[in-house]
Automatic annotation (TrEMBL):
It catalyses: N-[(R)-4-phosphopantothenoyl]-L-cysteine + H(+) = (R)-4'-phosphopantetheine + CO2; (R)-4'-phosphopantothenate + L-cysteine + CTP = N-[(R)-4-phosphopantothenoyl]-L-cysteine + CMP + diphosphate + H(+). Catalyzes two sequential steps in the biosynthesis of coenzyme A. In the first step cysteine is conjugated to 4'-phosphopantothenate to form 4-phosphopantothenoylcysteine. In the second step the latter compound is decarboxylated to form 4'-phosphopantotheine. Catalyzes two steps in the biosynthesis of coenzyme A. In the first step cysteine is conjugated to 4'-phosphopantothenate to form 4-phosphopantothenoylcysteine, in the latter compound is decarboxylated to form 4'-phosphopantotheine. This is Coenzyme A biosynthesis bifunctional protein CoaBC. The keyword Flavoprotein applies. GO terms for molecular function: FMN binding; metal ion binding; phosphopantothenate--cysteine ligase activity; phosphopantothenoylcysteine decarboxylase activity. It comes from Brevundimonas goettingensis. Residues 7-214 form the DNA/pantothenate metabolism flavoprotein C-terminal domain.
Length: 222
């Protein structure tokens, strides 16, 4: 028999940056590497979950046993994430752009005597808050991320209630997280806070996947 603890569970994971087009050749993006989210998708699959990874542009290979959906913009990421529901587990680790270009130019914007263009931005929807909102499709366990440079625990806890998710993984991004293979995090839940020391992102991912498995195990024993 297959004793993997997340067998029969469905998970959706978002990872990487988003890319918000300005015109056919230019866009707004950020420095997220996607490594932590990819490692989480991989660790959940290893424990038996059926994982859909909704990924912004990263250049990383598809983890073994994971089905990946490639997206560019926040709006595409939101649609693909919602299309992956229902799921038991949602881990939204993507660095979603807060804003997108209001009107994407159909042709390449030309340099000219009129000077530089003005780019009007509008706010992107919050994918995490939408997924965590009460409703028939809400996953049983919704996990968000908080990248902070100060007051990590207070900011992560505030995000937990503001977004309505169950757990927040907080990282201090003031030193060497973006693109790095290592990470130190706080796991913030309604029951308390745990501090996980700096270790490879793959080890953080395995620890998080094991915690997720424990969570479902505890629920099914109730
Ligand atoms: O508000 P902030 O961007 O700091 O929140 C980070 C968390 O929210 C991450 O889990 C991120 O994936 C998620 N998020 C999202 N959609 C957005 C912005 C953030 O899902 N538009």
């Amino acid at each position: 028999p297959d004793g993997r603890p997340l067998l029969g569970r469905k998970a959706v994971v978002t990872a990487g940056p988003t890319f918000e087009a300005i015109d056919p050749v230019r866009g707004l993006t950020n420095r997220s590497s996607g490594k932590q989210g990819y490692a989480i998708a991989s660790a959940l699959a290893t424990l038996g979950a059926e994982v859909t990874l909704v990924s912004g542009p990263t250049g990383l290979p598809v983890p073994v046993g994971v089905s990946r959906i490639d997206v560019e913009s926040a709006l595409e990421m939101k649609a693909a994430t919602e299309a992956a529901l229902p799921a038991d587990i949602a881990v939204l680790s993507a660095a979603v752009a807060d804003w997108r270009i209001d009107t994407i130019s159909g042709g390449k914007i030309k340099k000219g005597p009129g000077g530089p263009p003005t780019l009007a931005l509008i706010e992107n929807p919050d994918i995490l808050a939408g997924i965590a909102a009460p409703g028939p499709n809400r996953p049983a366990l919704v996990i968000g991320f908080a990248a902070e440079t100060t007051e990590l625990e207070a900011n992560a806890r505030a995000k937990l209630s503001r977004k309505g998710c169950d757990w927040i993984v907080g990282n201090d991004v003031s030193d060497d997280v973006f693109g790095s293979d290592g990470n130190a995090v706080l796991l913030v839940t309604r029951d308390g806070t745990e501090s996980w020391p700096r270790q490879p992102k793959t080890a953080i991912a395995r620890q998080l996947a094991a915690r997720i498995a424990d969570h479902f195990n505890a629920i099914s024993l109730k």
